[in-house]
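Aim 2 progress update. The chain analyzed this quarter is reproduced below.
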Amino acid sequence: MNYNYLLYFSVLAQTEHYTTAAARLGISQPALSSAIRNLENSLGGVKLFEKVGRNIRLTEEGRFYQETVDEAIKKLHGASLLLRDSKTQAPVVIRMGVVSGTVNGLLAKEIVKYSQNNPRIRFDLTETSSEKLMDMVRQEKLDMAIVDSSDRDRSLHFRKLYQRDFLVALPATHPLANRDCIEPHEVVSEPQVVFNYNVGKSFKEWTTGTPMDEAVVCTVDTARSALDLVSAGIGISFIPTECAEKRPGIAYVPIKNWHQALYMCILYDKWLEPPIWDFVEIVVKAFRARKS
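Predicted structure tokens:
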């Protein structure tokens, strides 16, 4: 199969105009017409275009073929760039998203270790809600994300990492500050700082029938912001165990029977550069080993 024929077909399919396509490609119109005929002949005589007056348009077979050809050209272009970059030792940027608290501890150690073992690697980290992270993965703005919920969207692939526990962060002077654990109903109507995303939503689902919405005094995106507000005395907050920072004036008490799964999220059936895919596997194995 002649690569130029595929490229010519792709441009002509976009413009549906021989003169415009030929000018864009920098070739003559007869040369373009000849290339398209040769391509159709190589496909067993399938007609990729049909005439409509003085213009042309894709046939049904042409529309089907356009999707495949455009994807193939995109992959070939990406492979060419990768080979060129590897020759020049260009940095490989791993664009990773995380929900609040995930970078603490284990993930931070894996990032440091991978960077030290691979000097070309650079990390670009984004910390926000699961919904935003999944959207960024869909839009290919992130290579991967660690999220605290899964989605039925078949364009995304989820791999469970582990279950994390939660604490209630409350003022050290709070009557329940010295308890070994707390039941949800004991604090659900307290003034609360909640997350804008799934931590808050999961808790509301978990405490169905309670007046939680009336108790919310502030919403935040990160655990650090929540702790700043608890420290200031605005209320309590439910945070992942790994986000508990030693701060004056704050006490942490485990919440009974509240766990939340974390998932590795990537775009389904998308090719990732080997160094990026290797890091996905390293993170999955490290988190899964943590629970054993």
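The radius of gyration is 27 Å. The first helix runs from residue 3 to 15. These observations will guide the mutagenesis experiments scheduled for the next reporting period.
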